[in-house]
Amino acid sequence: TNCLSGLAAEVKLADRLGVSRTGLFPFDGAGSDDQGRTTPAALTTFLRRIAKTRFGPSLFGALPILGRDGTMATVESQTPAAGHAQVKTGNRVVSTPAGRLIVLGNSLAGYAETRSGRRVVFMIAVGNVPIRTAEAFLSVTADQARMVVAIQRDL
Known about the structure:
Helix content: 25-40%
Strand content: 25-35%
Shape: flat
Order of helices and strands: HEEHHEEEEH
Structural class: alpha+beta
């Protein structure tokens, strides 16, 4: 398959699902182009509506489980939220020619089964966050993971 055809299919699917055309701007299939943009509203609309399609369960099943597997295996693994959120990560951190670091974007998006038994869709995103060290990025992601725990616990 070629990338342009894939992008066209991605946008067509988003349109069919009712995702706002002003909220989704893919530039590559990997999400690694710095020009690509997706708003939290667009992504949560996509996740909410894709879950009702015939391939929604496959997407849901492919997402890493908080505190259990994949990229989320060690994240908040000792909290009651572990095992109750399926989350996709997305991040882009760059260094300037002067050696300064900036988090262009970091997000956690997915589904959480709340303590009350509801399944909710969420996206937590930050952008344009200057950081002093690569290790400081870990505090950004830890803060976001704690927000997922709060969503699971309090909603």
